[in-house]
Design goal:
This is Porin. By secondary structure, this protein is mainly beta. Helices cover 2% and strands 51% of the residues. It contains two helices and 18 strands.
Length: 348
Amino acid sequence: MLIRKIVLPMAVAGLIGVAHAQSTVTLYGTIDTGIQYLSHASSDGKASIGMQSGNSIPSHWGLTGREDLSDGLSAYFNIENGFLENSGSMTVPGDLFNRFALVGLKGPWGSVEFGKQPNLMFAQTLTYDATYMAQYSLLSTNLMPSVTVYLSNSVKYSTPNIHGLSGAAMYAFGQQMAGDFQAGKYLGLSTAYQQGPVSVRVVYEETHGSVDKATGISASGAVDRRASVAAKYTVGDLTLMSGYANVSGDLQLSPRGNLYWAADTYDLTPTFSMLVQAMRYDTSRGQGHPTWAILGSIYRLSVRTFVYGYAGYLDNLGAKTVSLNSLDPSQPGGMSQTGIQIGINHSF
């Protein structure tokens, strides 16, 4: 994404007149909107057509800043808001920085971040999804449940890259309920390897249930566990991707089972790309075997603007908790879905 930098030089003189570090602040964002046709968009099986935000990339804006503290050490921050372009409202009403709100330190030993930030499964899967998390994407499978994607009260450590190998560990304190240290707690571990055209990553995470503040009922004793491995290989203008994930535990944020996906992207020209992706979720205990197929194309009008088109199909196969569009709040209730999206994306 292209971003425009607002540079604020900060030469701070000490008592003896010595200049200190320089700081930069960057404003960035993406505005994405389009039109969608979606079959079986309601429980009575009716189709819908209309305008919506974030078909290809969620619309958002943010600020990030960095200060050089010398000796290879730097401090930085990132705050980011998601919004709906077609209505102008925030994606999470009343939550201004609903995506990022973090501060961190980076040095030769790696980096450590504190605040609100995405969990490891989400952050480490973006580049292994050919759609890069469009509305028809791995998000449709609920591999990364929306309630656990952005974690408050979290701490993350990332190692430096050593000969292509890196890792990360993340812990979130959850709801921080007095007397209940498990409520909403998160633990994640990941490792990745990238060398030349090959990259591989492995992620494990577990999330504890939360406390319903209205009723006082606690599910903090229940745990959701997810493990995933994904790989990518690039040769020329073609990139091949595949992955596997296992969902287990008793919290049931999504059904227990095994998820598989395979995809490729191909740059036909420097400005025109196409993608294809297939996903299958083999759930246990009779909760279905939904299968998705997605086709997409992107045409770049400039380095900051592109137009796109997506076509997707969900063969429901008995599932009742998934849909084709990851942002569709209605459940198909055992019905399959077909969707088409066209739109435009502009970044700044």
